[in-house]
Amino acid sequence: MSPVTARGLRTTIFHQSRHLKEQDTYDCSTTCPICGLATGRSIVGRIQFDPDILLLECHNCHGASASRMPQPRILEEFYRQYYRPEEQLHVTFHNPARFARHIAGLIPHGWFAEKNLLKILDFGGGDGSLALALEARLPIEGQITVVDYEEGHAADGLIRWERSLDEAVGPFDLILASAVLEHIPEVQPVFGQLFARLASGGICYARTPWVAPYMKRFKPFDFTYPGHVHDMGAGFWNRVPRTFRLEADLLASRTSIVETDFSRNFWRTLTAHVIKAPALVEQLVRPGAPDPWWNYAGSWEVLLMKRD
After folding, report:
1. How far apart are CA 276 and CA 73, in angstroms?
2. Which residues is 56 bridged to in the sheet?
3. What is 221-268 written as a DSSP string?
4. Which of 101, 148, 157, 259 has the smallest number of CB atoms closer than 10 Å to its CB?
């Protein structure tokens, strides 16, 4: 797989911004790279100066993207640093088992009825830790395919590794796209590719950052560009079936689980829980609202089911 189209769970360089020159980028200001329409976009905030790179929110899909995208050669270099053998391992989620337990809890138990084998696709799944932990918690056996830039080694023989979505043979009953879509400049076709590989009645779990409200309120704000080029929050995900004309239903759309845990990073974890608490309360009061009042959840997750 091209490193421009997926990433794993390691995030060392994704949390470090890098200033790009104009020749290192290309213009992406007229058409939304998420939904592909040119229906108008509003300025959310500034990502960098010289050249000016802005975060623009699409009036159609309500996702936000950088006005200039990094050239493929820049991302190739960026990802080569990311996948260096000597690169210290960091994870976006401190405890894959806790994350897997959370996702398993979102899936309706009756969904597993009449299934003997669950085909799982983990897109941008790194070493496959999440998929393995989730498969271990499910009531039926799973067959795992991981699509990522580099093949993992932690679970040799238990996972089928592919470097491209084109090589991932579906259909899949369960697709995971956790903390990956925000890194892909030309992301619009990826939504179609993922949905095309989802079996009828299949479920897709996705998780993305939602920091655009912070960029509006706090200036300057570090968007961690070019590792992150998109921002997809509640307003975006609650409209995904309409935006992409998907025959699908949202089973869950909520502020995402906190990535860190108290044992490793107490204050960061406490802050995250405090920030997300109003969103959880609002979901009890206003279930199904497309645009929440509380916009500072920091990230969002959805569970989407393809209709039979």
Report:
1. 37
2. 43, 65
3. ----TTT--EE--HHHHTTHHHHTT-SEEEEEEEEPPPSS-TTT-HHH
4. 157
The domain of 30 spans 13-306
Residue recorded with tokens 């990535």: 259
User: The domain that contains 207 carries what CATH number?
Assistant: 3.40.50.150
Q: How far apart are CA 75 and CA 48, in angstroms?
A: 17
141, burial (CB in 10 Å: exposed 0-12, middle 13-18, buried 19+): exposed
> Mean pLDDT throughout 93-119?
91
Cα separation of 116 and 107, whole Å? 16
Average the pLDDT over 155-160 and give the result. 75
- Identify the residue whose tokens are 């592909």: 36
Please answer whether residues 228 and 60 qualify as being in contact, where contact means their C-beta atoms are separated by less than 8 angstroms: no
| Alpha carbon distance 122, 165 (integer Å) | 10
Max alpha carbon distance in the chain (Å)? 58
Query: What's the number of domains the chain is made of?
Result: 1
What local confidence, expressed as pLDDT, does residue 76 receive?
Answer: 84
Q: Is 166 in a helix, a strand, or coil? A: helix
CB 9 within 8 A of CB 130: yes
What's 53's DSSP letter? E
Measure the CA–CA gap between 93 and 102, rounded to whole angstroms.
12
CB 159 within 8 A of CB 144: yes
Specify if 201 maps to a domain: yes
- Is the model's pLDDT at 268 over the cut of 70? yes
Residue with tokens 């998907």: 246
In this structure, the number of other CB atoms found within 10 A of the CB of residue 305 comes to: 19
Residues pairing with 26 in the sheet: 69
Looking at residue 85, what is its pLDDT? Answer: 55
Give the three-state DSSP class for 131. helix
- pLDDT attached to residue 126: 83
